[in-house]
Amino acid sequence: MKIGDIELGERPLFLAPMEDVTDASFRYICKEFGADVMYTEFVSSDGLIRDARKSLEKLKTFPYERPIGIQIYGHIPEAMVEAAEMAERAEPSFIDINFGCPVNKIANRGAGSGMMRYPDKMVDITKRVVEAVKLPVTVKTRLGWDDNSKIIVELAERLQDTGIKALTIHGRTRAQLYKGEADWSLIGEVKNNPRMVIPIIGNGDITTDLQAKEAFDRYGVDGVMIGRATYGRPWIFKEIRHFLNTGEHMRPLTVEEKVELAKRHLIKSVEVKGDRVGVLEMRRHLSAYFKSLPDFKAIRMKLVTENSHLELIKILDYINERYTSDEKIDN
User: Fold this and answer.
1) Which of 59, 79, 83, 101 is an active site residue?
2) Cβ neighbours of residue 314 under 8 Å, at least 6 residues apart?
3) 129/75 same-domain check
4) Which of 33, 123, 140, 320 could form a disulfide with 259 if both were Cys (CB 3.0 to 4.6 A apart)?
Protein backbone atom coordinates (compact mmCIF):
# COMPACT_ATOMS: atom_id res chain seq x y z
CA MET A 1 0.00 0.00 0.00
CA LYS A 2 1.11 3.57 -0.72
CA ILE A 3 -0.01 7.02 0.33
CA GLY A 4 1.23 9.03 -2.60
CA ASP A 5 4.86 7.96 -2.93
CA ILE A 6 5.06 6.72 0.69
CA GLU A 7 5.51 2.94 0.67
CA LEU A 8 3.80 1.29 3.65
CA GLY A 9 4.20 -2.39 2.82
CA GLU A 10 1.47 -5.00 2.83
CA ARG A 11 -1.46 -4.83 5.26
CA PRO A 12 -0.21 -1.80 7.24
CA LEU A 13 -1.54 -1.10 10.73
CA PHE A 14 -2.50 2.47 11.63
CA LEU A 15 -2.71 4.10 15.06
CA ALA A 16 -5.86 6.22 15.12
CA PRO A 17 -5.45 9.83 16.27
CA MET A 18 -7.05 10.25 19.70
CA GLU A 19 -7.21 13.48 21.66
CA ASP A 20 -5.26 13.38 24.93
CA VAL A 21 -4.04 9.85 24.16
CA THR A 22 -1.84 9.73 21.07
CA ASP A 23 0.75 12.26 22.19
CA ALA A 24 4.44 11.88 21.34
CA SER A 25 5.21 9.51 24.22
CA PHE A 26 2.33 7.14 23.40
CA ARG A 27 3.26 7.21 19.72
CA TYR A 28 6.82 6.30 20.71
CA ILE A 29 5.56 3.18 22.45
CA CYS A 30 3.15 2.22 19.65
CA LYS A 31 5.94 2.56 17.09
CA GLU A 32 8.08 0.28 19.23
CA PHE A 33 5.35 -2.36 18.99
CA GLY A 34 4.97 -2.08 15.23
CA ALA A 35 2.48 0.63 14.35
CA ASP A 36 3.20 1.27 10.67
CA VAL A 37 1.51 4.69 10.40
CA MET A 38 0.62 7.20 13.08
CA TYR A 39 -1.01 10.60 13.40
CA THR A 40 -0.76 13.52 15.76
CA GLU A 41 -3.67 14.24 18.03
CA PHE A 42 -6.13 16.16 15.88
CA VAL A 43 -5.37 19.85 15.60
CA SER A 44 -7.94 22.64 15.46
CA SER A 45 -7.58 24.81 12.36
CA ASP A 46 -8.90 27.78 14.35
CA GLY A 47 -6.36 27.11 17.08
CA LEU A 48 -3.49 26.95 14.61
CA ILE A 49 -4.25 30.19 12.84
CA ARG A 50 -4.69 31.94 16.22
CA ASP A 51 -1.26 30.59 17.27
CA ALA A 52 -2.83 28.76 20.21
CA ARG A 53 0.00 27.16 22.16
CA LYS A 54 -1.60 23.73 22.58
CA SER A 55 -2.43 23.48 18.88
CA LEU A 56 1.07 24.51 17.82
CA GLU A 57 2.64 21.98 20.18
CA LYS A 58 0.74 19.18 18.49
CA LEU A 59 2.55 19.87 15.22
CA LYS A 60 5.84 18.57 16.60
CA THR A 61 6.85 15.14 15.37
CA PHE A 62 10.07 13.12 15.47
CA PRO A 63 12.04 11.37 12.70
CA TYR A 64 11.52 7.91 14.23
CA GLU A 65 7.74 8.36 13.96
CA ARG A 66 7.67 8.53 10.18
CA PRO A 67 5.53 8.01 8.28
CA ILE A 68 3.28 10.26 10.34
CA GLY A 69 0.39 12.54 9.44
CA ILE A 70 -0.74 15.77 11.04
CA GLN A 71 -4.52 15.69 11.32
CA ILE A 72 -6.48 18.94 11.18
CA TYR A 73 -10.16 19.68 11.65
CA GLY A 74 -12.46 22.64 11.23
CA HIS A 75 -15.46 23.92 9.28
CA ILE A 76 -14.23 27.19 7.73
CA PRO A 77 -12.60 26.57 4.33
CA GLU A 78 -10.13 29.46 4.54
CA ALA A 79 -9.01 28.45 8.03
CA MET A 80 -8.57 24.83 6.96
CA VAL A 81 -6.38 25.89 4.03
CA GLU A 82 -4.22 28.11 6.23
CA ALA A 83 -3.96 25.38 8.86
CA ALA A 84 -2.92 22.84 6.23
CA GLU A 85 -0.18 25.19 5.02
CA MET A 86 1.06 25.65 8.59
CA ALA A 87 0.99 21.89 9.15
CA GLU A 88 2.95 21.32 5.97
CA ARG A 89 5.73 23.59 7.23
CA ALA A 90 6.12 21.23 10.20
CA GLU A 91 7.20 18.60 7.62
CA PRO A 92 4.99 15.59 8.39
CA SER A 93 4.71 12.76 5.89
CA PHE A 94 1.17 13.78 4.90
CA ILE A 95 -1.81 15.92 5.96
CA ASP A 96 -5.01 14.24 7.16
CA ILE A 97 -8.41 15.92 7.37
CA ASN A 98 -10.67 14.84 10.22
CA PHE A 99 -14.28 14.55 9.09
CA GLY A 100 -14.95 11.79 11.61
CA CYS A 101 -14.80 13.07 15.19
CA PRO A 102 -18.32 12.73 16.68
CA VAL A 103 -18.00 14.65 19.96
CA ASN A 104 -20.62 17.37 20.42
CA LYS A 105 -18.30 20.35 20.83
CA ILE A 106 -16.80 19.59 17.41
CA ALA A 107 -19.60 17.97 15.40
CA ASN A 108 -22.27 20.47 16.47
CA ARG A 109 -20.15 23.28 15.05
CA GLY A 110 -20.10 21.53 11.70
CA ALA A 111 -16.55 20.24 12.05
CA GLY A 112 -15.40 16.62 12.33
CA SER A 113 -18.30 14.27 11.54
CA GLY A 114 -20.62 17.28 11.68
CA MET A 115 -19.49 17.85 8.11
CA MET A 116 -21.44 14.72 7.08
CA ARG A 117 -24.54 16.96 6.97
CA TYR A 118 -22.80 19.17 4.39
CA PRO A 119 -21.13 16.86 1.87
CA ASP A 120 -20.72 19.60 -0.74
CA LYS A 121 -18.82 21.72 1.76
CA MET A 122 -16.77 18.71 2.84
CA VAL A 123 -15.71 18.10 -0.75
CA ASP A 124 -14.98 21.79 -1.30
CA ILE A 125 -12.74 22.01 1.80
CA THR A 126 -10.90 18.86 0.80
CA LYS A 127 -10.31 20.13 -2.73
CA ARG A 128 -8.97 23.45 -1.45
CA VAL A 129 -6.59 21.76 0.98
CA VAL A 130 -5.31 19.37 -1.71
CA GLU A 131 -4.63 22.30 -4.01
CA ALA A 132 -2.93 24.34 -1.27
CA VAL A 133 -0.24 21.86 -0.19
CA LYS A 134 2.37 19.72 -1.90
CA LEU A 135 2.22 16.87 0.61
CA PRO A 136 -0.24 13.99 0.14
CA VAL A 137 -3.65 14.68 1.68
CA THR A 138 -5.84 11.97 3.22
CA VAL A 139 -9.29 12.02 4.81
CA LYS A 140 -10.87 10.21 7.75
CA THR A 141 -14.65 10.13 7.93
CA ARG A 142 -17.72 8.04 8.87
CA LEU A 143 -20.58 6.31 7.08
CA GLY A 144 -22.90 9.30 7.32
CA TRP A 145 -24.73 11.49 9.80
CA ASP A 146 -27.30 8.87 10.86
CA ASP A 147 -28.94 5.67 9.66
CA ASN A 148 -31.03 7.62 7.17
CA SER A 149 -28.03 9.26 5.51
CA LYS A 150 -25.30 6.69 4.99
CA ILE A 151 -23.71 8.50 2.07
CA ILE A 152 -20.21 7.07 2.21
CA VAL A 153 -20.21 5.10 -1.07
CA GLU A 154 -20.98 8.13 -3.23
CA LEU A 155 -19.04 10.48 -0.96
CA ALA A 156 -15.91 8.34 -1.24
CA GLU A 157 -15.93 8.78 -5.01
CA ARG A 158 -16.33 12.54 -4.69
CA LEU A 159 -13.51 12.79 -2.15
CA GLN A 160 -11.26 10.69 -4.36
CA ASP A 161 -11.95 13.08 -7.24
CA THR A 162 -10.49 15.97 -5.20
CA GLY A 163 -7.07 14.31 -5.34
CA ILE A 164 -6.73 12.74 -1.88
CA LYS A 165 -4.31 9.82 -1.65
CA ALA A 166 -6.15 7.58 0.86
CA LEU A 167 -9.45 7.42 2.71
CA THR A 168 -10.09 6.07 6.20
CA ILE A 169 -13.65 5.07 7.06
CA HIS A 170 -14.95 4.50 10.58
CA GLY A 171 -17.83 2.06 10.32
CA ARG A 172 -20.35 4.09 12.31
CA THR A 173 -22.52 7.13 11.70
CA ARG A 174 -22.07 10.29 13.71
CA ALA A 175 -25.33 9.57 15.54
CA GLN A 176 -23.90 6.29 16.83
CA LEU A 177 -20.88 7.98 18.42
CA TYR A 178 -18.98 4.87 19.58
CA LYS A 179 -22.08 2.81 20.44
CA GLY A 180 -23.34 -0.31 18.74
CA GLU A 181 -21.27 -2.28 16.27
CA ALA A 182 -19.24 -0.84 13.44
CA ASP A 183 -20.68 -1.72 10.01
CA TRP A 184 -17.78 -3.00 7.96
CA SER A 185 -20.03 -4.06 5.08
CA LEU A 186 -20.21 -0.47 3.82
CA ILE A 187 -16.45 -0.08 4.19
CA GLY A 188 -16.11 -3.20 2.04
CA GLU A 189 -18.59 -1.77 -0.48
CA VAL A 190 -16.43 1.34 -0.87
CA LYS A 191 -13.28 -0.75 -1.25
CA ASN A 192 -14.89 -3.01 -3.87
CA ASN A 193 -16.32 -0.12 -5.89
CA PRO A 194 -14.50 -0.40 -9.23
CA ARG A 195 -14.29 3.39 -9.42
CA MET A 196 -12.16 3.56 -6.28
CA VAL A 197 -8.42 3.42 -6.87
CA ILE A 198 -7.03 5.05 -3.73
CA PRO A 199 -6.27 2.92 -0.64
CA ILE A 200 -9.13 2.36 1.78
CA ILE A 201 -8.33 2.04 5.49
CA GLY A 202 -10.96 0.48 7.73
CA ASN A 203 -11.57 1.56 11.32
CA GLY A 204 -13.92 0.50 14.08
CA ASP A 205 -14.10 -2.28 16.70
CA ILE A 206 -10.74 -3.85 15.89
CA THR A 207 -9.75 -5.28 19.29
CA THR A 208 -8.18 -8.63 18.41
CA ASP A 209 -5.78 -10.17 15.93
CA LEU A 210 -8.62 -12.26 14.46
CA GLN A 211 -10.75 -9.18 13.78
CA ALA A 212 -7.85 -7.46 12.04
CA LYS A 213 -7.26 -10.47 9.80
CA GLU A 214 -10.96 -10.64 8.96
CA ALA A 215 -10.93 -6.95 8.01
CA PHE A 216 -8.20 -7.63 5.47
CA ASP A 217 -9.51 -10.98 4.22
CA ARG A 218 -13.28 -10.41 4.20
CA TYR A 219 -13.56 -6.73 3.33
CA GLY A 220 -10.38 -6.29 1.30
CA VAL A 221 -9.24 -3.07 2.95
CA ASP A 222 -5.71 -1.92 2.27
CA GLY A 223 -4.99 -0.97 5.89
CA VAL A 224 -6.55 -1.31 9.33
CA MET A 225 -6.72 1.53 11.84
CA ILE A 226 -6.90 0.79 15.56
CA GLY A 227 -8.01 3.32 18.14
CA ARG A 228 -9.48 2.65 21.56
CA ALA A 229 -8.09 -0.90 21.76
CA THR A 230 -4.55 0.52 21.91
CA TYR A 231 -5.25 2.36 25.17
CA GLY A 232 -3.55 0.35 27.88
CA ARG A 233 -2.53 -2.18 25.22
CA PRO A 234 -0.18 -0.65 22.64
CA TRP A 235 1.32 -4.09 22.01
CA ILE A 236 -1.83 -4.95 20.03
CA PHE A 237 0.09 -3.99 16.88
CA LYS A 238 2.67 -6.68 17.61
CA GLU A 239 -0.08 -9.20 18.38
CA ILE A 240 -1.80 -8.53 15.07
CA ARG A 241 1.37 -8.58 13.00
CA HIS A 242 2.45 -11.84 14.64
CA PHE A 243 -0.92 -13.40 13.80
CA LEU A 244 -0.93 -12.11 10.23
CA ASN A 245 2.56 -13.52 9.66
CA THR A 246 2.29 -16.83 11.49
CA GLY A 247 -1.40 -17.65 12.03
CA GLU A 248 -0.63 -18.08 15.71
CA HIS A 249 -1.56 -15.92 18.68
CA MET A 250 1.27 -14.12 20.42
CA ARG A 251 1.73 -15.05 24.07
CA PRO A 252 0.36 -12.48 26.54
CA LEU A 253 2.78 -9.98 28.06
CA THR A 254 3.89 -10.80 31.57
CA VAL A 255 3.51 -8.36 34.45
CA GLU A 256 7.26 -7.83 34.36
CA GLU A 257 7.15 -6.91 30.68
CA LYS A 258 4.24 -4.53 31.28
CA VAL A 259 6.12 -2.86 34.13
CA GLU A 260 9.20 -2.32 31.95
CA LEU A 261 6.95 -0.96 29.21
CA ALA A 262 5.22 1.40 31.65
CA LYS A 263 8.60 2.70 32.81
CA ARG A 264 9.74 3.41 29.25
CA HIS A 265 6.48 5.20 28.54
CA LEU A 266 6.74 7.26 31.73
CA ILE A 267 10.35 8.24 31.07
CA LYS A 268 9.52 9.29 27.49
CA SER A 269 6.53 11.31 28.70
CA VAL A 270 8.69 13.21 31.20
CA GLU A 271 11.38 13.69 28.56
CA VAL A 272 8.90 15.18 26.09
CA LYS A 273 6.69 17.23 28.45
CA GLY A 274 8.69 17.77 31.61
CA ASP A 275 8.22 16.24 35.04
CA ARG A 276 4.92 17.86 36.05
CA VAL A 277 2.92 17.59 32.83
CA GLY A 278 4.61 14.34 31.83
CA VAL A 279 3.49 12.68 35.07
CA LEU A 280 -0.02 14.14 35.01
CA GLU A 281 -0.68 12.91 31.48
CA MET A 282 0.86 9.49 32.14
CA ARG A 283 -1.12 8.53 35.21
CA ARG A 284 -4.19 7.37 33.30
CA HIS A 285 -2.01 5.29 30.97
CA LEU A 286 -0.28 3.60 33.88
CA SER A 287 -3.53 2.49 35.48
CA ALA A 288 -4.77 1.22 32.11
CA TYR A 289 -1.71 -1.01 31.67
CA PHE A 290 -2.59 -2.97 34.79
CA LYS A 291 -6.40 -2.78 34.90
CA SER A 292 -6.76 -6.58 34.60
CA LEU A 293 -4.79 -7.29 37.78
CA PRO A 294 -6.78 -8.57 40.78
CA ASP A 295 -7.11 -6.53 43.97
CA PHE A 296 -5.63 -3.52 42.22
CA LYS A 297 -7.86 -0.67 43.44
CA ALA A 298 -5.55 0.62 46.20
CA ILE A 299 -2.49 0.54 43.94
CA ARG A 300 -4.43 2.23 41.15
CA MET A 301 -5.31 5.09 43.49
CA LYS A 302 -1.62 5.59 44.17
CA LEU A 303 -0.81 5.57 40.45
CA VAL A 304 -3.42 8.19 39.59
CA THR A 305 -2.59 10.57 42.45
CA GLU A 306 1.23 10.46 42.60
CA ASN A 307 3.02 13.57 41.27
CA SER A 308 6.63 12.37 41.18
CA HIS A 309 7.91 10.18 38.38
CA LEU A 310 10.49 8.70 40.75
CA GLU A 311 7.76 7.64 43.15
CA LEU A 312 5.75 6.23 40.26
CA ILE A 313 8.71 4.07 39.31
CA LYS A 314 8.81 2.76 42.89
CA ILE A 315 5.10 1.87 42.63
CA LEU A 316 5.76 0.09 39.35
CA ASP A 317 8.58 -1.87 40.97
CA TYR A 318 6.17 -2.87 43.74
CA ILE A 319 3.62 -4.05 41.14
CA ASN A 320 6.30 -6.15 39.51
CA GLU A 321 7.39 -7.66 42.81
CA ARG A 322 3.88 -8.41 44.02
CA TYR A 323 2.23 -9.74 40.87
CA THR A 324 5.17 -11.46 39.19
CA SER A 325 5.39 -13.85 42.13
CA ASP A 326 1.65 -14.54 41.71
CA GLU A 327 2.21 -15.37 38.02
CA LYS A 328 4.93 -17.88 38.91
CA ILE A 329 2.59 -19.56 41.38
CA ASP A 330 -0.20 -19.74 38.77
CA ASN A 331 2.17 -21.26 36.25
Assistant:
1) 101
2) none
3) yes
4) 320
